[in-house]
Amino acid sequence: MEEFRSVRGFHDIFGEELERFNAVRQTVRRILELYNFEEIILPVVEYAEVFQRSIGEATDIVQKEMFVFPDKKGRMLALRPEGTAGVVRAFIQNRMFALKPYTKLFYEGPMFRYERPQAGRYRQFHQIGGEVFGSLDPLVDAEVISIAHKVVKELKIEAVVEVNSIGCKVCRPAYREALVQYLEQVAGHLCEDCIDRKDRNPLRVLDCKVPTCKSAVKDAPKMVDFLCEECREHYQKLLEYLNIMGIPYVENPNLVRGLDYYTKTVFEVVSRELGITIIAGGRYDYLVEEMGGVPTPAVGFAVGVERVAMLVKELPQRQPLYMVIPLGEDTVSYALKVCELLREKGKRVELSYKRAGLKKQLELANKLKADYAVIVGEDEMREESVSIKNLHTGEQVKLSLKELFSHVL
Predict the structure, then answer these.
(1) Is position 113 annotated in a ligand binding site?
(2) 342 and 251, same domain (yes or no)
(3) Is 83 labeled as ligand-binding?
């Protein structure tokens, strides 16, 4: 019979990889709660139009990477390629704008993009993201960036924060015109994708990783030179707040992000070790209105869980594992009682399913990486005690159940 294998770009997460994965999840969630974000659980499937309208028809995600399929009534659905659009849809649909002066939400879960699998990015990948609705204040942008900075700091990951402003509806048209004129002059040095982008989404050319394109746009016009007074003041305030908060950053005038909905602030956290973006976000002041809601400024970010997990070197220390070993069939019921008592005290416990002598049982305990063997024989059952052996030092003592709990607590 043919062996089943996972679909290309979809993979299983287990063992040490899962430990790193969960270390990232737990760290990000804890930090988000420190900033008073509330969780929202979003559907994995949305109407395709949600992403087409929000991300932009001209983006690579919409044109090439979305998993799109019809339902039984012929309506086009999509597996979510990112989280912000779904949060905005939920914010509008559930009239959250009427509940609070501003709203802070975070989400977690799998995203789907049909792209070439690469380091830390599969066709199913996971993100944790946060969104703040209702404030134009650059202080919000600074706090969102500070969350990203705290994540990498707490996980002891070497990374650099890059920031830029890409303007607004007032100042971006003049910049776009200047950029297109420049790109026409260097078109002979652009890759095929960027030849296409220069007309439909010229800002994306600035973010291309192809060496010839990077070289070609080296002297391209900079958005910061075209910012209107409001955008310039917003950007300068952001940098001022980052300095006050002690967050190191680098200004990157070619940073634009790949989604059409961004305005003003954009940022990325880039791994020094791998040179890849691991956290990214920015402001999107028009998106809520463009998706049918009341005009609402917003800013958000997302953490690429797999990419960050690749860089985690120090795993959280796990609780000691107690392996309860019944010696003989008659002691199994007493061993079960000991297991439950230990678990009620919050201990991590493995009950041996093997029926063998003590030597074989201890070999099993070592294979399962137990820290203590809790040995239950007929004498221990009669005395309501256990023999506990430290598998690291070899020390063994007999304790009553009361003494056991004082010993392990």
Answers:
(1) yes
(2) no
(3) yes
Q: Is 57 annotated as a binding residue?
A: no
Task: Tell whether 322 is in a known binding site.
Answer: no
Q: Are 323 and 374 in contact (CB under 8 A)?
A: yes
Q: Is 130 assigned to a binding site? A: no
* Alpha carbons 183 and 165: distance in angstroms, whole number: 20
Contact indicator for 113, 66 with CB cutoff of 8 Å: yes
Number of domains present in the structure of the chain: 2
- The model scores a pTM over 0.85: yes
pLDDT exceeds 80 at position 58: no
Residue 235 assigned to a binding site: no
User: Do 51 and 83 fall into the same domain?
Assistant: yes
Query: Residue 138, CB half-sphere, CA atoms under 13 Å: how many?
Result: 20
> Are 275 and 231 part of one and the same domain?
yes
Q: What is the pLDDT of residues 110-133, one digit of tens each?
A: 999 998 887 677 999 999 999 999
C-alpha–C-alpha distance, residues 147 and 128, integer Å: 12
Write down which residue in 310, 332, 366 finishes a domain: 310
CATH number of the domain that 395 lies in?
A: 3.40.50.800
The Cα 79–Cα 124 span in angstroms is 10
Each residue's pLDDT tens digit, 274-303? 999 999 999 999 999 999 999 999 999 999
- Its domain, for residue 61, covers 15-171+227-310
Give the bridge partners for 374, in sequence order.
324, 388
197 is annotated as contributing to ligand binding:
no
Q: How many residues does the chain have?
A: 409
Tokens representing 248 are 């190191």
Task: Tell whether residue 277 is among the known ligand binding residues.
Answer: no
- Residue 35 known to bind ligand: no
Residue spans of alpha helices (H) in 280-374? 287-290, 305-310, 332-344, 358-367
| 3-class DSSP assignment, residue 296 | coil
Q: Considering only CA atoms, give the Rg of the chain.
A: 27
Regarding whether 336 and 257 lie in a shared domain, the answer is no
